[in-house]
Amino acid sequence: MLTFRCKRFVLLAIAYVYFTVDIVFAKPLKFHLSKTTPRLSLSSFHKRDNVVLSLKNNNDEYFSTTINLGTPSQELSVIFDTGSADLWVMNNNNPHCLNNSVSNITDSPTIDCSQITTFDYTKSTSFKKLSDDRFYINYVDETYAEGEWATDTLTINDIPISNMQFGLALNATTPVSGVLGIGFQRREAVRGYPGASNEFYPNFPEVLKQEGIVDVVAYSLNLGQTSSIIFGGLDTNAYDGDIYTFPMVNVYPTVVDKPATLSLTIQGLEAYDSNGQKTSQIFNSKYPVLLDSGTTLVSFPMEIAEKMANFVNATYSEYESIYIMDCPSDTINTGFVFDFGDLKLNISLASFILPPDGESYCGFGVLPSSGSITLGDSFLKNAYVVYDLENYQISLAAVAEDNTLDQNIIDIPNDGKIPGAIMASAVAWNSYDESDTTTSSIGTSKASFQSSTLQTVTKTNSVTKSSQSENIIFETVTEYIC
Length: 482
Fold this sequence. Notes:
Blueprint: H1 10-21, E1 51-54, E2 56-58, E3 62-69, E4 74-81, E5 87-90, E6 128-138, E7 144-156, E8 159-172, E9 178-181, H2 204-210, E10 218-222, E11 228-231, E12 233-235, E13 239-247, E14 263-266, E15 268-272, E16 279-283, E17 287-291, E18 298-301, H3 302-311, E19 315-317, E20 322-326, E21 335-339, E22 344-348, E23 353-354, E24 361-364, E25 366-369, E26 373-375, H4 377-380, E27 383-388, E28 393-399, E29 409-411, E30 422-423, E31 443-449, E32 452-464, E33 471-481
């Protein structure tokens, strides 16, 4: 069986789509934060304007960063994710770990924890459990993490943050050390399941501003050759050409009144051939697109994915669950132009090629979806992105080809008006009616969990290959709307 280097992480990437695309929590201001939000304190702290974190590229499969949790601190490597909002870490006594001496799991999924870092809360003198509320998150690949909410001292770049809230996964089948989610606070996994706290809390980006570490809940992301994230600032030497500021779009306009995902508008997509002469318009309609560091590849609606695959002579393999094609030469000049209106990003085919493991053909890293577009790491490596969660805007530029320049970090202003940035003039997407091939079937029903009544929106996404009679299910998700 053909095994791509990132194939074993495809399910993980799709799993994060569940949390990054399809769960929305509305209007956090309706809820009081006092129940689960302890008082935070920064001892011996001096005001900073920004915080720079280095990111590690793990074999082109995902990006991670290092945190220190507890007293004395324990170093943990966690997946870095713009698409979710919680910090959670795996407990060292997780019974699903194959190498765990206390494991009594015989018929449930097990994972190899020997290569990941885990947290031993019994060794931390500053660890505190938060009530009896349950922490729980599950993914489309049917893995999950569950346990309890807790607080402890989080240290990043020698900055100690006391009483940082996080999820401690006492039982987990998701094969990762943990996740540092930095999305909107209202996307936190605190609602929609039995035992949930039903209380939002200041997550990591919110805490940085709350404690005076940064001035604005905003950050810039560079997944190029020198991967890093800067909270509260951006590096003007990390991108080439002009940087444009686009409004975020609300992909749930009938449910919430403000954006809940880190999405903007794409105006079209064009492909060009190996000689740079032949071009093909893949689509020229407005679509909302999610820019998500927690997803490895990119996904497009079936019709668009098929057009992209046909242009590069890739065919869908039911056996491999991915498009496959002849491996292109190093000199080929084929690629795609991502049209955001004011800004067009030219990304070569090489960014979407999945190298084989001992085979003569390659994978084409474009996944069909049922209607949504997610641009993951394979796209983000070519872009410099500034996410401004306070002013609901995203600034975008081509990532710098020359990564030898020293950093030139400037602050992101409170009003979001980045010096030198150009406000986009292209009309933003605001309705699924504008997207010709985008369809959405969402039905609503009522559900009650403990004392809270939630509106439950269930959406089952299925895609049918034109040449097949059977349905291929890529995502099955449940949304919980406050």
